[in-house]
Protein backbone atom coordinates (compact mmCIF):
# COMPACT_ATOMS: atom_id res chain seq x y z
CA UNK A 1 0.00 0.00 0.00
CA UNK A 2 1.26 3.51 -0.86
CA UNK A 3 2.50 5.62 2.06
CA UNK A 4 -0.20 8.30 1.99
CA UNK A 5 -2.95 5.70 1.59
CA UNK A 6 -1.79 4.01 4.80
CA UNK A 7 -1.91 7.34 6.62
CA UNK A 8 -5.41 8.13 5.35
CA UNK A 9 -6.62 4.75 6.60
CA UNK A 10 -5.05 5.31 10.03
CA UNK A 11 -6.32 8.87 10.60
CA UNK A 12 -9.87 7.91 11.72
CA UNK A 13 -8.39 5.65 14.42
CA UNK A 14 -5.95 8.23 15.75
CA UNK A 15 -6.60 9.98 19.05
CA UNK A 16 -5.41 13.35 20.44
CA UNK A 17 -2.65 11.65 22.43
CA UNK A 18 -1.26 10.08 19.26
CA UNK A 19 -0.97 13.51 17.65
CA UNK A 20 0.57 14.89 20.84
CA UNK A 21 3.40 12.36 20.56
CA UNK A 22 3.91 13.05 16.86
CA UNK A 23 4.05 16.79 17.54
CA UNK A 24 6.57 16.24 20.34
CA UNK A 25 8.78 14.22 18.01
CA UNK A 26 8.49 16.91 15.34
CA UNK A 27 9.65 19.61 17.77
CA UNK A 28 12.43 17.59 19.36
CA UNK A 29 13.87 16.50 16.00
CA UNK A 30 15.00 20.10 15.60
CA UNK A 31 17.67 19.23 18.16
CA UNK A 32 18.05 15.44 18.07
CA UNK A 33 18.62 12.86 15.37
CA UNK A 34 17.02 10.37 17.75
CA UNK A 35 14.68 11.83 20.35
CA UNK A 36 15.26 10.31 23.82
CA UNK A 37 12.29 8.61 25.43
CA UNK A 38 12.80 10.80 28.51
CA UNK A 39 12.45 13.97 26.41
CA UNK A 40 9.17 12.68 25.05
CA UNK A 41 7.95 12.10 28.61
CA UNK A 42 8.73 15.72 29.46
CA UNK A 43 7.36 17.16 26.24
CA UNK A 44 4.05 15.25 26.20
CA UNK A 45 3.32 15.10 29.93
CA UNK A 46 2.24 11.47 29.51
CA UNK A 47 3.33 8.79 31.96
CA UNK A 48 5.66 5.99 30.86
CA UNK A 49 2.93 3.44 30.31
CA UNK A 50 0.75 5.78 28.25
CA UNK A 51 3.68 7.05 26.18
CA UNK A 52 4.82 3.48 25.51
CA UNK A 53 1.30 2.59 24.40
CA UNK A 54 1.10 5.58 22.06
CA UNK A 55 4.51 4.87 20.55
CA UNK A 56 3.49 1.26 19.98
CA UNK A 57 0.36 2.38 18.12
CA UNK A 58 2.32 4.84 16.00
CA UNK A 59 4.92 2.20 15.24
CA UNK A 60 2.18 -0.13 14.04
CA UNK A 61 1.14 2.56 11.54
CA UNK A 62 4.80 3.09 10.51
CA UNK A 63 4.67 6.67 11.79
CA UNK A 64 7.66 6.37 14.12
CA UNK A 65 10.80 4.29 14.27
CA UNK A 66 12.78 3.24 17.35
CA UNK A 67 16.53 2.85 17.62
CA UNK A 68 18.25 0.20 19.71
CA UNK A 69 19.92 1.39 22.89
CA UNK A 70 23.32 0.12 21.75
CA UNK A 71 23.14 2.22 18.58
CA UNK A 72 23.04 5.68 20.22
CA UNK A 73 23.39 4.80 23.88
CA UNK A 74 19.77 5.40 24.81
CA UNK A 75 16.24 4.55 23.72
CA UNK A 76 15.35 7.03 21.00
CA UNK A 77 12.67 7.62 18.40
CA UNK A 78 12.30 9.37 15.06
CA UNK A 79 9.28 10.65 13.22
CA UNK A 80 8.81 8.83 9.92
CA UNK A 81 7.40 10.47 6.76
CA UNK A 82 4.05 8.80 7.47
CA UNK A 83 3.89 10.54 10.83
CA UNK A 84 4.67 13.90 9.25
CA UNK A 85 1.98 13.28 6.64
CA UNK A 86 -0.51 12.58 9.43
CA UNK A 87 0.30 15.86 11.17
CA UNK A 88 -0.05 17.88 7.98
CA UNK A 89 -3.26 16.20 6.82
CA UNK A 90 -4.87 16.56 10.25
CA UNK A 91 -4.02 20.29 10.25
CA UNK A 92 -5.39 20.84 6.73
CA UNK A 93 -8.62 19.07 7.65
CA UNK A 94 -8.96 21.10 10.87
CA UNK A 95 -8.35 24.31 8.87
CA UNK A 96 -11.21 23.47 6.51
CA UNK A 97 -8.89 23.19 3.51
CA UNK A 98 -9.19 19.48 2.84
CA UNK A 99 -11.99 16.99 3.27
CA UNK A 100 -10.76 13.98 1.33
CA UNK A 101 -7.80 12.60 -0.56
CA UNK A 102 -8.08 10.72 -3.83
CA UNK A 103 -5.62 8.81 -6.01
CA UNK A 104 -2.04 9.73 -6.77
CA UNK A 105 -1.92 11.98 -9.85
CA UNK A 106 1.81 12.62 -10.06
CA UNK A 107 5.10 11.35 -8.67
CA UNK A 108 8.70 12.45 -8.96
CA UNK A 109 12.04 12.14 -7.21
CA UNK A 110 11.17 14.92 -4.78
CA UNK A 111 7.38 14.92 -4.43
CA UNK A 112 4.15 12.95 -4.64
CA UNK A 113 0.97 14.67 -5.79
CA UNK A 114 -2.53 13.48 -4.89
CA UNK A 115 -6.00 14.54 -5.87
CA UNK A 116 -7.64 16.36 -2.99
CA UNK A 117 -11.24 17.37 -2.35
CA UNK A 118 -12.18 20.55 -0.50
CA UNK A 119 -15.19 20.74 1.86
CA UNK A 120 -17.08 22.45 -1.00
CA UNK A 121 -16.20 19.66 -3.44
CA UNK A 122 -13.51 21.53 -5.39
CA UNK A 123 -10.68 19.43 -6.82
CA UNK A 124 -7.21 20.18 -5.48
CA UNK A 125 -3.64 19.09 -6.14
CA UNK A 126 -2.00 18.07 -2.85
CA UNK A 127 1.78 17.97 -3.09
CA UNK A 128 3.84 16.05 -0.49
CA UNK A 129 7.50 17.05 -0.65
CA UNK A 130 9.85 14.07 -0.37
CA UNK A 131 13.34 15.55 -0.57
CA UNK A 132 15.82 13.05 0.87
CA UNK A 133 13.82 10.05 -0.34
CA UNK A 134 16.59 9.04 -2.76
CA UNK A 135 19.65 10.57 -1.08
CA UNK A 136 19.45 12.01 2.41
CA UNK A 137 23.21 12.69 2.45
CA UNK A 138 22.80 15.31 -0.30
CA UNK A 139 20.14 17.33 1.51
CA UNK A 140 22.49 19.92 2.97
CA UNK A 141 24.20 20.59 -0.36
CA UNK A 142 20.98 20.41 -2.26
CA UNK A 143 19.27 23.50 -0.89
CA UNK A 144 21.07 26.81 -0.62
CA UNK A 145 18.68 27.98 2.04
CA UNK A 146 19.74 25.29 4.54
CA UNK A 147 23.48 25.28 3.89
CA UNK A 148 24.36 27.19 7.08
CA UNK A 149 22.32 25.01 9.44
CA UNK A 150 24.38 22.67 11.59
CA UNK A 151 21.58 20.23 12.37
CA UNK A 152 19.27 19.56 9.44
CA UNK A 153 16.43 17.07 9.48
CA UNK A 154 14.47 16.01 6.45
CA UNK A 155 11.41 17.49 8.17
CA UNK A 156 12.92 20.95 8.11
CA UNK A 157 14.06 20.76 4.50
CA UNK A 158 10.71 19.53 3.19
CA UNK A 159 8.72 22.05 5.22
CA UNK A 160 10.93 24.91 4.04
CA UNK A 161 10.63 23.71 0.44
CA UNK A 162 6.83 23.80 0.65
CA UNK A 163 6.91 27.22 2.30
CA UNK A 164 9.15 28.64 -0.40
CA UNK A 165 7.07 27.31 -3.27
CA UNK A 166 3.89 28.59 -1.64
CA UNK A 167 5.52 32.00 -1.26
CA UNK A 168 6.51 32.03 -4.95
CA UNK A 169 2.97 31.15 -6.04
CA UNK A 170 1.56 33.90 -3.81
CA UNK A 171 3.79 36.36 -5.66
CA UNK A 172 3.10 35.04 -9.15
CA UNK A 173 -0.54 33.94 -9.34
CA UNK A 174 -2.15 37.31 -8.43
CA UNK A 175 -0.01 38.97 -11.13
CA UNK A 176 -1.41 36.70 -13.82
CA UNK A 177 1.61 34.46 -14.33
CA UNK A 178 0.51 31.01 -15.52
CA UNK A 179 1.15 29.01 -12.36
CA UNK A 180 -1.10 26.86 -10.15
CA UNK A 181 -3.41 28.79 -7.84
CA UNK A 182 -2.09 28.44 -4.29
CA UNK A 183 -4.63 27.35 -1.69
CA UNK A 184 -2.77 26.44 1.52
CA UNK A 185 0.46 25.05 2.93
CA UNK A 186 1.14 23.08 6.09
CA UNK A 187 4.51 21.60 6.95
CA UNK A 188 5.78 19.78 3.85
CA UNK A 189 2.42 19.74 2.09
CA UNK A 190 1.39 22.30 -0.51
CA UNK A 191 -2.24 22.51 -1.64
CA UNK A 192 -3.08 24.05 -5.02
CA UNK A 193 -6.07 24.21 -7.27
CA UNK A 194 -5.99 21.16 -9.50
CA UNK A 195 -4.61 21.90 -12.96
CA UNK A 196 -5.15 20.05 -16.20
CA UNK A 197 -2.59 19.05 -18.80
CA UNK A 198 0.45 16.83 -19.16
CA UNK A 199 4.10 17.28 -18.36
CA UNK A 200 5.91 18.62 -21.42
CA UNK A 201 8.47 15.81 -21.24
CA UNK A 202 5.71 13.17 -21.46
CA UNK A 203 3.78 14.45 -24.45
CA UNK A 204 4.29 15.65 -28.00
CA UNK A 205 2.85 19.06 -28.77
CA UNK A 206 1.30 19.85 -32.15
CA UNK A 207 2.63 23.39 -32.38
CA UNK A 208 6.03 23.39 -30.67
CA UNK A 209 7.03 26.89 -31.73
CA UNK A 210 3.83 28.36 -30.29
CA UNK A 211 4.32 26.43 -27.05
CA UNK A 212 7.93 27.56 -26.75
CA UNK A 213 6.79 31.15 -27.27
CA UNK A 214 4.21 30.77 -24.49
CA UNK A 215 6.77 29.28 -22.11
CA UNK A 216 9.19 32.14 -22.68
CA UNK A 217 6.38 34.72 -22.40
CA UNK A 218 5.31 33.34 -19.04
CA UNK A 219 8.91 33.13 -17.89
CA UNK A 220 9.44 36.77 -18.81
CA UNK A 221 6.25 37.68 -16.99
CA UNK A 222 7.61 35.98 -13.85
CA UNK A 223 10.81 38.00 -14.16
CA UNK A 224 8.76 41.19 -14.37
CA UNK A 225 7.15 40.17 -11.07
CA UNK A 226 10.66 39.74 -9.65
CA UNK A 227 10.86 35.94 -9.54
CA UNK A 228 13.42 33.61 -11.17
CA UNK A 229 12.33 29.97 -11.43
CA UNK A 230 15.83 28.57 -11.01
CA UNK A 231 15.12 25.02 -12.16
CA UNK A 232 13.05 25.28 -15.34
CA UNK A 233 12.99 22.32 -17.72
CA UNK A 234 10.60 20.09 -19.65
CA UNK A 235 9.83 18.32 -16.37
CA UNK A 236 8.12 21.27 -14.71
CA UNK A 237 6.13 22.68 -17.60
CA UNK A 238 2.56 21.44 -17.98
CA UNK A 239 0.92 21.81 -21.40
CA UNK A 240 -2.64 21.58 -22.66
CA UNK A 241 -2.92 22.53 -26.32
CA UNK A 242 -0.88 25.70 -26.72
CA UNK A 243 -1.42 26.71 -23.07
CA UNK A 244 1.32 26.21 -20.53
CA UNK A 245 1.62 26.17 -16.75
CA UNK A 246 4.96 26.61 -14.99
CA UNK A 247 5.20 24.46 -11.85
CA UNK A 248 7.72 23.43 -9.14
CA UNK A 249 8.94 26.80 -7.88
CA UNK A 250 10.85 25.61 -4.80
CA UNK A 251 14.22 26.76 -6.21
CA UNK A 252 13.09 30.32 -6.94
CA UNK A 253 15.15 33.39 -6.17
CA UNK A 254 14.47 37.10 -6.49
CA UNK A 255 15.77 38.90 -9.56
CA UNK A 256 18.13 40.81 -7.25
CA UNK A 257 19.86 37.59 -6.15
CA UNK A 258 23.58 37.47 -7.06
CA UNK A 259 23.04 34.28 -9.08
CA UNK A 260 19.83 35.44 -10.78
CA UNK A 261 21.36 36.15 -14.20
CA UNK A 262 23.12 32.79 -14.25
CA UNK A 263 19.92 30.97 -13.27
CA UNK A 264 17.87 32.79 -15.90
CA UNK A 265 20.39 31.87 -18.57
CA UNK A 266 20.31 28.23 -17.48
CA UNK A 267 16.50 28.13 -17.37
CA UNK A 268 16.13 29.62 -20.85
CA UNK A 269 18.90 27.45 -22.28
CA UNK A 270 17.31 24.29 -20.85
CA UNK A 271 14.00 25.05 -22.53
CA UNK A 272 15.48 26.14 -25.87
CA UNK A 273 17.76 23.10 -26.00
CA UNK A 274 14.82 20.78 -25.32
CA UNK A 275 12.71 22.19 -28.16
CA UNK A 276 15.70 22.05 -30.50
CA UNK A 277 16.45 18.41 -29.68
CA UNK A 278 12.87 17.13 -29.76
CA UNK A 279 11.20 19.34 -32.35
CA UNK A 280 13.97 20.96 -34.36
CA UNK A 281 12.84 24.42 -33.25
CA UNK A 282 15.92 26.61 -33.21
CA UNK A 283 15.80 29.50 -30.76
CA UNK A 284 19.01 30.91 -29.40
CA UNK A 285 18.72 31.86 -25.73
CA UNK A 286 20.29 35.20 -26.65
CA UNK A 287 17.07 36.11 -28.47
CA UNK A 288 15.18 35.93 -25.19
CA UNK A 289 17.44 38.51 -23.58
CA UNK A 290 17.37 40.75 -26.64
CA UNK A 291 13.57 40.69 -26.76
CA UNK A 292 13.09 41.02 -22.99
CA UNK A 293 15.56 43.85 -22.69
TrEMBL record:
GO terms for cellular component: cytosol; preribosome, small subunit precursor. Its EC number is 2.7.11.1. It is an enzyme of class 2 (transferase). GO terms for molecular function: ATP binding; metal ion binding; protein serine/threonine kinase activity. GO terms for biological process: maturation of SSU-rRNA. InterPro entries: Kinase-like_dom_sf, Rio2, RIO2_wHTH_N, RIO_dom, RIO_kinase, WH-like_DNA-bd_sf, WH_DNA-bd_sf. It comes from the Archaea. It holds the Pfam family Rio2_N. Residues 70-290 form the RIO kinase domain. Belongs to the protein kinase superfamily. RIO-type Ser/Thr kinase family. This is non-specific serine/threonine protein kinase. It comes from Methanopyrus kandleri. The lineage of its organism: Archaea, Methanobacteriati, Methanobacteriota, Methanomada group, Methanopyri.
